[in-house]
Amino acid sequence: MDFRLNDFLQMNPGFRFEPTDQEIMVHYLQPKIQSLPLPYPIPEADVCGSDPWNLPGDSQEERYFLCPVETKHPNGTRTNRTTPSGRWKPTNASKQVVDSENKHLGTKKTFVFYMSKPGSKTDWFMHEYKIANPIQGVQNWMICRVFLKNKVRNTGAVFYVPRDFDLNLDGGDSSSTGFSGVTVADDEDEINSK
């Protein structure tokens, strides 16, 4: 595919692509495997074979990719996650993704990227989503969410106004000292939960 990722996935201001684990499974991964249209386009990329900073799109933002499942060995089940500069290592056991009726939809696994030399851990993380029962004889896909863990996300400007601030809508003199300034909101709880 020859397109610029940022142009292709441009959303209207105020909208964010932040699907839940269940939405990823039901509305994106299952339809992709069944060759059905997706409600919103997700680009395809070799996430497990590429260094995270070389993936399409803004590397400072969280990104979602559809990725074919490729195993280390022809008859094996282990996914190959080695890149030119390092590898993706799992951080914990797989988490089951279930629907509202507790039906098992698939798994979510978290990985951290390690550099080959000197084998150091980076701030790059990946959530890998796979369906529970892959269909035999059909190309199997997974969805990968790639992001920098310690990146502070700019959620926009927040204006703080003192309680005694006089808007001075009538055009007369105001004794108020006025506007207290602009700060950028940091939503650390949201960042740390991802």
Notes on the protein architecture:
Strands 1, 2, 3, 4, 5 and 6 form a 6-stranded antiparallel β-sheet that branches. A two-stranded antiparallel ribbon has the order 7-8. It is of the alpha+beta class and 194 residues long. The chain has helices at residues 5-8, 21-33, 188-193, and strands at 63-68, 86-90, 95-98, 104-115, 121-131, 141-148, 154-159, 182-186. The protein is globular, with a radius of gyration of 22 Å. The chain is 12% helix and 29% strand. The two termini are 29 Å apart. It is built from 3 helices and 8 strands. The chain folds into 2 domains: 5-150, NAC domain (Metal Binding Protein, Guanine Nucleotide Exchange Factor, Chain A, Beta Complex), CATH 2.170.150; 155-190, no CATH class. Strand 3 and strand 4 form a beta hairpin.
